Amino acid sequence: MKYIGAWFADGANNVSNLVVLDSINLVLPGDTIGQAQVTQYRRTFEPGQTVTVTLAVTNGDADLYIWRPGSLAMPDYISNRPGTATEQLVFTAVEGEYLIEVHGYQSSQFNLDLSTGSLGMLQPSSPLSSKLRPLIAKPLPPHPLVVNMPYSATPAEQPKHFFIYR
Prior knowledge:
By secondary structure, the chain is mainly β. It has one helix and ten strands.
């Protein structure tokens, strides 16, 4: 998860007051994660969409945790199967931004896939039933690794030096 920020300037040295920020989720096939590392992805879905998040672990043991918008406590959706299992969670989206975390229980290689469909295509699990599904005794994260995003902080200072491209 990376953020890109930009200021706008013109030839008369007028600089925009606000920083324009956007996020980038770089999902690579065959991505790797070390033991005890966490990779975060943020995603907004259309309310009412059926969302399927699939974590295909090809080597090692990685786990999948998802927090619904506004949730800061235990994950709402959990899949922590042992070894090179395919972790899959299905839910009906509500309004807001979801936080998806891949945890490296061991050093792992994985493929992450996010797909959406209309209601009725798949049978979603409720958050409560997902919480009760841990298959082995792995420690669950008590909260997301990072909850605040750059644009939720105070506005950045004006740049001291900038380049103008024409």
